[in-house]
């Protein structure tokens, strides 16, 4: 569906904004904990690290929610032609490498120049796959699939097939450092080389496309969300119960979050859909104006993402790696909260300046 200039502004899905805002908060807290907390001795067994890593980083609405939301919003965007999606995808993919440079790459390069030798971590810092790389590939793929006149159901089916293949192929193919990084964009090669493998993660975007199309067609959103919650809430309960009984990501090879199998993806999507339905009915009782800060955060998502990583990379590189400071957990979590506020404020200022000082 493409909106013409004469048509009204596409409706804003405020429940999706709240889902994305929750994901932003969870993501920044997670990143602060896993990046600064790894300098703590025995951090992998520390409950404070595990809460930041798994609760805030995996089982609340985080990366999987962002990618699901991206798929949904494709249906509601004015700029959703195949060419526009491909262009946006290329920009996001390139931005991933730009962010790599300013996040940790610049400090790794500076250290190598000063020491006269570059460590293997320098290459990792510069080329490691980020969610921006995956988002770029996903938008490019979606644009190409739409150019072939495929409907959302067909794209979703492709996403399911890719997810099945991605789960089966995870950790089965390695070809050396360069090949692992390149191939790692598509399938999980090693834990160091594959963060958001396209085969494993495109199903979230594809499902978002299908969900968004279904939501656009419904005449009774309340009924739609009631039926949704009637299905997803029990699935979520079963998924979390089995996770407690067995172990985190027990449905995925090596328990590797980024190599999520199709059954694991279903469990993660049940989290996003249950939260989305809950937010829809919350907005029935509480005026959306009460959530204006979170709506702004959702709109500034990409800017917040880049800003928080640049700040975090600076603090980690200078204070932890260079000066050898090990922050206590209380300071790490307080820093995470401060980073949320600072990143959101800076992103809002950036947005206003880009729009000529007019708040949107």
Keywords:
disordered N terminus; 360 residues; mainly alpha; 0% strand; 14 helices; single chain
Quick gist of this model?
The chain contains 14 helices and no strands. The chain has helices at 14-37, 47-59, 63-76, 82-115, 120-127, 131-147, 152-169, 177-183, 198-217, 221-245, 262-285, 292-299, 301-322, 329-354. Helix 7 packs antiparallel against helix 9 (198-217) and helix 13 crosses helix 14 (329-354).
What does this 3D model show about the protein?
The chain is an all-alpha fold. It has 14 helices and no strands. The protein has helices at 14-37, 47-59, 63-76, 82-115, 120-127, 131-147, 152-169, 177-183, 198-217, 221-245, 262-285, 292-299, 301-322, 329-354. The model is unreliable at 1-9 (pLDDT under 50).
Secondary structure layout plus pairing:
Elements: H1 14-37, H2 47-59, H3 63-76, H4 82-115, H5 120-127, H6 131-147, H7 152-169, H8 177-183, H9 198-217, H10 221-245, H11 262-285, H12 292-299, H13 301-322, H14 329-354
Low-confidence stretches: 1-9
Main sheet record: none
What fraction, in percent, of the residue positions are helical? over 70%
Structural class: mainly alpha
Q: Oligomer, anyone?
A: single chain
Secondary-structure element string: HHHHHHHHHHHHHH
Number of strands: 0
Which radius of gyration do the C-alpha atoms yield?
Answer: 20 Å
- How far is it from the N-terminal to the C-terminal residue, by CA? 25 Å
